[in-house]
Amino acid sequence: MANQSVQKSPAEPEPKFLSYLLSQEHKHDCYFMVGNRKLIQPERIGVVKKMLMAHSDVLRAELEESKLAEKDDVPLEDLYPDTFITFLKYVYGHDTTASLIFDEADNLLYVAEKYMMTVLKSKLSARLITLVSPDNICQLLNNPACYTTLELQSTITG
């Protein structure tokens, strides 16, 4: 499971459409149970399935071919709910990558790698390069996504 962020990035105004898309009171066509029960209380998060499928071939394959996506909640035990919400904001069109703190960017990089989202990976890699320090480099090395991102590899080994 990706690391839980302790700090939050500075608050920035979100577009009004985000609150509608993220609101759990509105009907969604797919639900994820996000979080590992051993670490935190999982949260049921509704999504607009087509938006996720439009951004990721991996999600498209999982959600089109999965009986779970049609009948039950899709389990996501390797993510924290806050990270998944940040991911949804990006998918729904609100890119906050330039303002993420280290932990948030590191966690989101894991998601971008998992769902093979190269544009998001590139943005997060650029952000993490500006944030990496001797205090957090070991945390970054624990993220398997940093080994597939050339910019991060050269920064870490450079």
UniProtKB/TrEMBL annotation:
**Where are its TM segments located?**
none
Domain BTB, by residue range, is: 28-100
- InterPro entries registered for this protein in UniProt: BTB/POZ_dom, SKP1/BTB/POZ_sf
What's the name of the protein? BTB domain-containing protein
Q: Which organism is it from?
A: Graphocephala atropunctata
